[in-house]
Amino acid sequence: MGKVYEMLWDCKFCGQEKLLAKTNRTCTQCGAAQDPAWRYFPSDSDKVEVQNHTFVGKDKLCPACDSVNAADNNFCIRCGAPMAGAEVAGTVPSRSKGAGEDFETQNLKALQRAQKELAQLEEAAQRRTMQRAHRLSGRSAGRIDRALGQPISKKTWALLGGGLTGMLGVGGIIAALLSMTVPVTVEVTGHTWQRRIAIEAYEAQAGSDWKDGLPSAAYNVSCRSKQRSTNRIPDGETCSTRQVDQGDGTFREESYCTTDYREEPVYDDYCSYTVNRWAVARWASASGRSLAEAPTWPPLNARTCATTSLGCERAGRRRETYTLQLLDRDSGETYRCDRTQPEWQVSPVGTPFQLEVGRILGDARCGSLARSN
Is 166's pLDDT higher than 70? Predict the structure, then answer.
């Protein structure tokens, strides 16, 4: 740990300057109590070292007379009042200097002005967050009211918006609202199905990659040098000194160094090439709009070959989709949900289901679809 020095403070009553914050708990000129908010760092020439200092915590302000007390005081040194629940003194932000530089006396007025502006910015940001939350809850209230079937009072929305803002923030509120669902009863009104087969062609394809990543069957290879990465090489260090307000009328000085680096480019061979491979050229498709139609796979119409050569075709991956068209007769809303073929086949028109629907967006949560008893 570095050396410990006294912070300075100015008396806001008589204007006395450069009082020692640890030694002078009251103004030496007028006797006014020290205000920790008026502390600041001294210049190098004004530093007064504290010998054999033991840090016991940040100073506290007497609840009765606002006098500064050490953290371990149980009763105020000025008026004798109990120090239970006393406010802790604030601290000045740390500052640093580079090697060979000097610390100047900190500008107290500029410091106080900056702290005031920061507090105003934080307060304004909190107000904007609350305003966005209230606007969001106001826009969403109507849709949620309709989904729930009963109105939510403005008081409830205010509590909801404020509570969620504190816990989740605006983004969390949106996510929470979008996750809300309401159960509805729907029935099957129609069926659709689609089956598709990928038709793959064996063709020459151009590509590019680093030399160590080329396909084994690549040909027409052409390479050039290109930067692939960067190496960070240690190149000395930069040392600085930091002053840290400890909150008890003292500050400590810490010396620290950071390694400097220089960047060196790393080059490698980057190549263009040609390779023969299978790739999807088109899809063969078949579809239907009735449960009475037995789903079938489409004809391939592919140029198949006995041996693989350029221009040959083959059947690739297969995809199939079976969709139920659903109707909520109470609201008139329609939905579409995909099911497995066995489930789809045993769900004729008129089959009732329970379905969770998003309260905000009204979207079907098809994973919840369950047959009604």
Answer: no
